[in-house]
């Protein structure tokens, strides 16, 4: 059916070039002697209406920075979603904490009831993932966190300008994290940003990305705690400044296209677009739908037909819950020959195996991702819808 390729993204133009040239002309690409990263942080913070933003080298680094701000004791627990990128989970283990996976609801995001059921005395944080840009049920999650005195980190790698009841995702919890990796709404190739309103957390985050160094102290160097070098370069800062100006346009265009697609798929029997709760706005990093359970057709089969029709769709995003995809995690083979932190004294025994998050497994088996970006036209949307309709007619 579709013979032409779908449009690819047009990410950069003269604005990035201008900022980059200015960075190079300044003769420093190091953030503490240049101005681009500092300005990018300031503009990012004001864009999101928060007091502080801390740039880093990736979304993974941004989440590691957030976990380091929380400063868990070894063996403390951090609850997160089983449908996510490894970049959400690796920082938990590197900071010696134990990832605990709560199950997801119909919206593919953390189910607050399952979060509550997984809280123990050792829970220090919840990392909420707004999957594909769809806001998670923040009121209920914040309520669980408040009751148990737990910090909430929002993983907004896929959720730039996603809105939950009129509030921007990333500003509802205590800390918000963003990725600037190549596929994200805005990108500096690689990069990350951690935002917060809390001055103590912000200070800790900034120092963590700078090897734990307290640059405010004169004289001999002062490193009050352990940190890493996650400093963003001026090149990334320069591109980030230009990209930030394009963010609203990218998200609005994706919303418009997704709205058209939702409408066209509305009367296709047996498929259901990712549910976005009323009053919320998704930012559509990916366009996803599920095949109704009663059709008994796995996503892989559906995708086979779509591909035959010229639509390069994907089945099931990461395929399996993240704790089964990641072998080190599944088998608890971590550092050297140890299972640290899983074998640390007093740590609750956790199992990462099939069946612990049944909704997650079920949704991944039925989930289809369509090719999608802000360069698509109405014609492209028509072809996507037509392809889905054809596949549904053939398979159901
Ligand atoms: C939900 C989520 N969290 C974290 C990350 C990690 O970001 P990065 O690839 O920039 O390290 C990604 C990106 O792939 C992501 O999609």
Tally the helices: what do you get? Answer: 14
Query: Helix fraction?
Result: 25-40%
Sheet with the most strands, sense and barrel status: 7 strands, mixed
C-alpha Rg (nearest Å): 21 Å
- Low-pLDDT segments, ≥5 res: none
- Strands, total number: 13
Envelope shape:
globular
Word description of this protein:
It is a single chain. With 396 residues, the protein is an alpha/beta fold. It has two domains: 14-246, Aspartate Aminotransferase, domain 2 (3-Layer(aba) Sandwich), CATH 3.40.640.10; 247-318 and 359-395, Alpha-Beta Complex (Aspartate Aminotransferase, domain 1), CATH 3.90.1150.10. It has helices spanning 14-25, 36-48, 59-70, 86-94, 112-118, 138-148, 199-208, 234-244, 247-265, 299-308, 322-325, 327-330, 358-366, 378-395; strands at residues 52-56, 77-80, 98-101, 123-129, 151-155, 163-164, 167-168, 175-179, 192-196, 271-273, 287-291, 314-315, 367-370. Strands 1-9-8-5-4-2-3 form a seven-stranded mixed β-sheet, sandwiched between helices. Helix 1 (14-25) runs antiparallel to helix 8 and helix 3 crosses helix 7. It is globular, with a radius of gyration of 21 Å. The two termini are 19 Å apart. The mean pLDDT is 98. The structure holds pyridoxal-5'-phosphate.
What is this structure, in a nutshell?
By secondary structure, the protein is an alpha/beta fold. Helix content is 38%, strand content 13%.
Features:
396 residues, alpha/beta, Aspartate Aminotransferase, domain 2, Aspartate Aminotransferase, domain 1, seven-stranded mixed sheet, four-stranded antiparallel sheet, 14 helices, 13 strands, globular, binds pyridoxal-5'-phosphate
């Amino acid at each position: 059916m579709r013979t032409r390729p779908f449009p690819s993204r047009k990410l950069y133009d003269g604005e990035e070039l201008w900022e980059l040239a200015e960075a190079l002309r300044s003769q420093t690409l190091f953030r503490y002697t240049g101005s681009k990263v500092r300005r990018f942080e300031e503009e990012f913070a004001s864009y999101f209406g928060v007091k502080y933003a801390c740039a880093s080298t990736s979304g993974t680094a941004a989440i590691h920075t957030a976990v380091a701000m929380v400063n868990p004791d070894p063996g403390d627990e951090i609850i997160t979603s089983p449908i996510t990128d490894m970049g959400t989970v690796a920082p938990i283990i590197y900071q010696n904490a134990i990832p605990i996976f709560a199950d997801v609801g119909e919206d593919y995001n953390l189910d607050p009831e399952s979060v509550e059921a997984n809280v123990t005395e050792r829970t220090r944080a919840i990392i909420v993932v707004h999957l594909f840009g769809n806001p998670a049920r923040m009121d209920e999650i914040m309520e669980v966190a408040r009751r148990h005195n737990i910090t909430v980190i929002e993983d907004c790698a896929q959720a730039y300008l996603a809105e939950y009841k009129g509030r921007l995702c990333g500003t509802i919890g205590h800390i918000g994290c963003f990725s600037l990796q190549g596929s994200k709404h805005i990108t500096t190739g690689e990069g990350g940003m951690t935002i917060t309103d809390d001055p103590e957390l912000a200070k800790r985050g900034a120092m963590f990305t700078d090897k734990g160094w307290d640059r405010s102290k004169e004289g001999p160097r002062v490193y009050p705690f352990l940190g890493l070098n996650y400093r963003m370069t001026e090149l990334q800062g320069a591109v980030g400044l230009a990209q930030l100006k394009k963010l609203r346009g990218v998200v609005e265009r994706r919303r418009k296209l997704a709205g058209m697609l939702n409408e066209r798929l509305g009367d296709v029997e047996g498929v259901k677009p990712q549910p976005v709760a009323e009053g919320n706005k998704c930012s559509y990093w990916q366009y996803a739908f599920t095949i109704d359970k009663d059709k008994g057709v796995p996503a892989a089969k559906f995708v086979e037909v779509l591909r035959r029709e010229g639509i390069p769709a994907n089945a099931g995003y990461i395929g399996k819950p993240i704790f089964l995809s990641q072998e080190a995690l599944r088998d608890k083979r971590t550092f050297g020959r140890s299972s640290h932190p899983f074998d640390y004294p007093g740590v609750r025994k956790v199992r990462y195996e099939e069946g612990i998050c049944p909704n997650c497994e079920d949704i991944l088996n039925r989930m289809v991702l369509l090719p999608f970006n802000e360069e698509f036209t109405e014609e492209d949307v028509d072809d996507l819808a037509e392809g889905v309709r054809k596949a549904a007619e053939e398979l159901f």
